[in-house]
Amino acid sequence: MAATMKQVVLAAYAQGNPKPGDFRIEEVPVPEAGECEILLKTLYIAVDPLLRFSVDETVLTGAGRMELGQPMVGPVVSEVIASSHPDYAVGDVVEGRSGWQEYAVLAPDLSDYRGPPRKLDRSLAPVSTALGVLGGPGQTAYEGIVKVGRVKAGETVVISAAAGAVGSIAGQIVKVLGGRAVGIAGGAAKCAALLDLGFDAAADYKAPDFADQLRAAMPDGAEVYLDNVGGEVTMTVLPLLKRGARMAMCGFIAYYGVGMEGPGPDRLPGFYRLIMNKGLEIRGFAGMLAGQQGLEDIARWMKEGRIRFAESVVEGIEAAPAAFSSVFSGHDHVGKLLVRVAAQG
Ligand SMILES: NC(=O)c1ccc[n+]([C@@H]2O[C@H](COP(=O)([O-])OP(=O)(O)OC[C@H]3O[C@@H](n4cnc5c(N)ncnc54)[C@H](OP(=O)(O)O)[C@@H]3O)[C@@H](O)[C@H]2O)c1
Fold it and tell me: Where would I find the Enoyl reductase (ER) domain in this sequence (predicted)?
């Protein structure tokens, strides 16, 4: 094993969308595991949009802000390469939050509220899926569609950021439940990819005729809106929803980096009017509440061939800053975007 390793540290708080230059690659000694600790070799890093709350110059939530010079936090899949902890053996593959570094030491008994690293069943699916369909994004999609959206057979469900990790799974869950899935994504290629995944229709929010495309995709409106975006996309969706529609508010990526008050005109009056006139039921959720039940159902649906996982992989830890930045500035990837740091074994 190497004596030194690479890690990605935060070099500057992001002003506007994060840029690769907001991060720095550092070479540091590989840590050593002490008593009841495990040494992990990172295999995959998930470049999750929610990490943004820790690195933005303009703080939008109460999420813990990172210190400059600190290694990036966030979900990863790793292999245990040394262990003096009774529950973890060398060769186990785990999902945890040991961050953007090639190796990490963890004390499973001292884990934060998220609990100790989750041991993965490698017979179920490729281990990378623990960061996507069989991890946080899958649980989030399940929560939004099954629990908050309460989608029933025959209902139309419109999903923003549908080609992303959460949206691409959410649309497939809608199909399992017997609903009609309408996806919104940026660009014709991503819309075509949604149809390949089984969505019934798609609309390109970057096209000048987005509103027309969306109206054509759901001529009778929609009973449920799973919103990952907010902003202009949501203001186009709301007038098309049916009376009493349920809006599961999962994310608002169009506003990340904006702060608590946007720079533009105040759109809240129009928003309020639509909520009242349409009798919308709006419920936000955070924290992947679907838990184990959600993961078990999704794993079963995958086994039955009813849900496919979509993921895109970029190579090498050095690629992580650019991959993270591209989540906000635009990329061609469909499904969960991952950085492969090392091969297993
Ligand atoms: N509530 C929770 O517990 C929870 C958990 C996980 C994630 N989330 C939230 O759910 C959302 C989706 O997460 P994810 O993991 O699926 O992310 P993801 O796979 O990284 O996909 C994000 C996609 O959002 C789209 N996007 C980015 N900026 C946009 C903008 N300004 N306007 C419209 N679309 C934009 C882009 O797709 P296009 O190329 O199509 O533009 C991008 O690929 C995020 O808002 C995230 O923060 C919430």
Answer: 21-339
How many angstroms does the Cα of residue 49 sit away from the middle of ligand 1?
Answer: 6
Q: Is the CB of 167 under 6 A from ligand 1?
A: yes
Residues 52-93 have pLDDT tens digits of 988 988 776 656 788 999 999 999 999 999 999 999 999 999
37 lines ligand 1 (CB under 6 A): no
Distance CA 294, CA 100 (A): 27
Measuring from atom 30 of ligand 1, which residue has the nearest CA? 254
Tens of pLDDT, residues 207-216: 999 999 999 9
Sign of CA dihedral 181, 184, 188, 190: negative
- Confidence band of 264 (pLDDT split at 50, 70, 90): confident
Does any ligand 1 atom lie closer than 6 A to the CB of residue 185?
A: yes
What does the pLDDT look like over 291-313, one tens digit per residue? Answer: 788 999 999 999 999 999 999 99
What are the DSSP E strand ranges found in the chain? Answer: 4-10, 23-29, 38-46, 76-83, 93-96, 103-106, 118-119, 156-159, 180-185, 201-204, 222-227, 241-249, 281-284, 311-315, 336-340
Ligand 1 atom closest to 184 (CA): 40
Domains of the chain, start order:
4-132+310-340 (3.90.180.10), 137-284 (3.40.50.720)
One-letter amino acid of 79: E
